[in-house]
Amino acid sequence: MMAARSKKKISVESSGKRKTAIARASVKKGKGRVRVNGSPIEIMQPDMARMKAMEPLAIADAMGRLAKADINISVEGGGTMGQVDAIRTAIARGLVFWNDGAAGEDDELRDEYLRFDRSLLVNDPRRKEPKHQMGRGARKKKQKSYR
After folding, report:
1. Which of 7, 48, 59, 87 has the most CB within a 10 Å radius?
2. What is the pTM of this model?
3. Rounded to an integer, what distance in angstroms lies between the CA atom of residue 43 and that of residue 19?
């Protein structure tokens, strides 16, 4: 009889979006390093953004699903917090598919992410509303009086 082989994938590509920010994550076998645009996630600024980006890593580490996986993330577009939301979505999706079961996903990790934050595994479809005529922005209009 043949021994059961590990069903780990060589590399998993995932992405996350928020407003106009797009993050692409590559999860592969390694030593547990996480890099954002080539620099470690631990030195990411501001501090609040770093803590928010590391939430999916803390959940996966608590469940023992983070060891031996390197994550390289490239992010572009948008502002700081939009990029952070895109990063955390890309990390969460990548780890769910990296720690796969028989169905192709890690159901326990996915359920824990959904219990923590329903929007962690789903891209945010909201976009900025364009400016309309007769006003300064999307909703603000010039006031008028007929009396």
Report:
1. 87
2. 0.84
3. 24
- CA 84 to each of CA 5, 14, 71, 136, 140: distance values in angstroms, whole numbers, following the listed order: 36, 15, 15, 29, 29
Where are the chain's structural domains? 11-116
In the block, tokens 């021994």 appear at 3
Q: Is it true that domain 11-116 has CATH number 3.30.230.10?
A: yes
pLDDT at 133: 87
Task: Select from 55, 43, 39, 111 the least CA-distant residue to 87.
Answer: 55
Structure tokens at 38: 């080539």
Question: ∠ at Cα 65 (61, 66), nearest 5°?
Answer: 60
What token pair was written down for 113? 């992410």
Q: How far apart are alpha carbons 126 and 18 in whole angstroms? A: 8
The amino acid at 142: K
Total residues found in the chain within this entry: 147
The Cα–Cα gap between 53 and 43 comes to 12
Residue found by looking up tokens 């990029």 in the block: 83
Strand 21-29 to 11-18 pairing: antiparallel
- The number of beta carbons lying within 10 Å of the beta carbon of residue 5 is 6
